Amino acid sequence: MTRQWVWYLAAVTGTSLMATLGVFVRQVSPGNELVIALGRFSIGFVCLAALRGLAGRQTSEKPVRVTWMLLASGLALAVFVVCYFRAVVSGTLANAAFLLYLGPLIASALAALWLGEGFDRTSGLLLGCALLGTLFITEFRLPTGADEIESLVFGFLSGLFYGLFLVLNNRKVQAGGSSLARTSTQFLVASLVMLPVVAVSGVSLKLSDVPWIVAVGVLHGFLALTLVIAALGHLKTVEYGSIAYGEPVAAALIGVFAYHESIVPLQIVGCLLVLGAGIARVLSKEDSSH
After folding, report:
1. Which end of the chain is more exposed for a tag (fewer CB within 10 A), N or C?
2. pTM reported for the whole predicted model
């Protein structure tokens, strides 16, 4: 269990870093969300390549075996980001965020049915509390117009592919190799998927946008996603799922303290539900080694 705390810490740190993404995206000229995603993956890939090159001089890294599952995880990474941005553009950020966070629930269900991880009452209760808390935080509302229905569809697809990304990084799915090598391969696949999408959508960047996109690549690509993928390789999907719901809590708190955004009592209740579920998951006596 002592070693397991390392991976819980990696999951918490990775999701906390990802919660700050909105701060950086707001600094980039509007309409460049897909360029930001490409920068996140491609710069993350370059940073990982440099790290692996330095580490390779000191240790012998176990080579990764490129499988369809590994390629699919990189594809899922790119698709869920694209769908999420489309959901945000065509609807409300709150609805898009809530639908994205159906992903951990979908992943936990797939892991239980496909990988035989099991889904006991405690896991279900904690995940349900986290999902309910996210519902309160985002104040999800049913769509009323055609644009909002489009946002609902893309939001659901973002949650679906986010869930696939999580379960495809489960240790029972990935065929060995180092975590850095697997992450690097996923970044490369996601970058190759994003290139034609960005080419079609176009680029309208200013020179002042470049440092922010580089920062996104380093912090939210290289650091955050590397930590998340490493944690997914050592935790059960439902364990990571309970912790992942801390991201909207962190994002809500950043909005309050950095941008002086208001927060209503129901959102505070949601934050407490999510935090309580995450802490209970970490402190659970359940053996996570199987």
Report:
1. C
2. 0.86
